Amino acid sequence: MSSIKKSKSFNVTKLFEFESDEKLTFLVGAGASVEAPSQLPSTNDAMKALIKLSCANSEIEAILKLQNLRFEVLVGIIHKSIEDDFQFLNFFTKSDKPNLEHFVLAEMIKKGHFIFTSNFDYLLEYALLQSDVPKKKIVPVITKKDYEKFSDPEKLYKNGKIPIYKIHGSHRNIITGEDTRTSFINTLKLIGLNQTKSNIVQLEPYKAQFLDKISNDRSLIIIGYSGKNDFDLMSTLKIMKNLKNLIWINHISNGGSKEDLYEFGAQKSSDLKNLDKLDQALLEIKQLNGSVNVFRLNVNTSKFLEKFFKEKEKLSKDKFTIDLMEWLKTNIDEPNELTKLFISYKIYSETKNYTDALRCLERIFRISEDSGNAQWKAIALMEMGIINYVQSNYSDALEWLRKALQVQLKLKAFPQRTSIFKYIALIHQVQKNYSKASQNFELALKENERIKDFYEKSKLYKHIGINYQYQEKYQDALKYFEAAIKINDKLENLSEKAINYKQIGKIYYSKKSFNEALKYLNEALKLNEQLENLEDKAEILNLLGRIFHEMGDSLNGLGKCNEALRIYYRLKNSKGKLDSLNYLGII
User: Fold this and answer.
1) How is the chain split into domains, by residue range?
2) Tell me: the pLDDT tens digits for 96-125?
3) Which residues, including other chains, have CB under 8 Å from residue 324's CB and lie 6 or more apart?
4) Where are the alpha helices (DSSP H) in 300-336?
5) Cα–Cα distance between 184 and 189 in angstroms, integer?
6) What is the pLDDT of residues 325-346, one digit of tens each?
7) Which residue from 45, 70, 73, 546 has the fewest beta carbons nearer than 10 Å?
8) Verdict on whether the full-model pTM lies above 0.70
9) How far from each other are the two terminal CA atoms of the chain, in whole angstroms?
10) CA 289 to chain centre
11) Cα separations (Å) of 503 from 236, 275, 423?
12) Are 53 and 334 in contact (CB under 8 A)?
């Protein structure tokens, strides 16, 4: 029996009508700014232009075919490789011509509905201004300070203010004139650094309260997203548990005025693999949050929304005509051949195409060796080592990293030395050569002191703590985990803090200090629940189950392990399921 059926009872149109008293929240993506006269490129078109600018000519065709490359990851790779503080994204601030979708959304905002967007442009602000909303009433929420001050949209509306929440930030607050580029850069850097952190709250916990406020007992309408490669968005939607309805407007460019609404059921679909990515994701959201009604509306978005827009004279007759590719060529320095190959390598690496990644590194190595460029030669050797480490080819990885170490000795400055020593240490750790691992972690720490990377320092402390933990040198391990937590607190890095609490809990469990173990594991559990990190939550629940059993409270232990088992079933994690079943068998 199919979990997706055509819906005849639910009426999306009524939600938009003036007399509707339904509370709405709109999530707006790049697709909303594509139609004339705005004419900004879609995410796919923007990615094509950036790939053509920044990748090696020999790799462009293959990279364009990659299905799992996210826009934010691509942007992070380019930024880190050309170090230009995301100047190449300035293009998205150039259009000042809102389209029909922006004006309809402006009317929705004026009625008191909430809106948040991942777009960098200012087109929603322009639409509000051109809809005669006084400038002083509009509140773009961009920086951490903004989110802390304006996390309650209900309160803002009562005070006559109209907020626009920009979840990925923006270059500038065009209402106040504040330069918000630093906040914008920091958010994009976070996304680039943390490929495994899936949702907004895991990256920036201060946005948790805002997400809760805009979710509670509301209908969420998603506009301008394809669903094909919006992994971070999907993960964020899964944590918006108190929604009434989720309606995904799936744009059909040649759909005319036809509207097809589908509803997703909670029962498991046996043919999940045969569904497109969007249907798979929506079905999973429904299975995780059974009380939320989940819909997909297949429609031409502009055709659907035009019935709610009566003042078409507001639309600019002039169109935004700057071509992104031409603008990039004029405004951004084209990377050199080695940088293009490195960007190509990083894209393959992040999308787990390791054979192609190594091929690009071999070319960098050959070119740098022929030209006598020791910097690039060391980078190529180091990255070969890292790729082999990721694939568990530890002997090869160690060989490449040692060669990188030899080459970089010729260089006065080489910031990547920290990474070389760290990965050598991690290999020794996997091979249970804890003494050599410890020596190399200490060398990595020493190198890191030169560049003052506190994020990396906290991770090194964690790795050293784990190294001592493996040797059952628990006091030394605790010292390093606690030092890591101090840095986590300064950086407000809750996900790393949760890991360190979990490790401390494991140490106390190993020492049979059950009350201390429960204290730290419960702290880790609370953080992972806040961050919606289900994998770690399930692991901790299994540990708690074992501890309760050993303390003589087997009933509580069974409850914890069963809760972990349910999470692993939801995550389709076979290893986790086996662990839970094994612990249940022991109890």
Assistant:
1) 4-40+95-321, 337-586
2) 999 999 999 999 999 999 999 999 999 999
3) 41, 45, 46, 49, 91
4) 301-305, 324-331
5) 9
6) 999 999 999 999 999 999 999 9
7) 45
8) yes
9) 37
10) 21
11) 26, 39, 21
12) yes
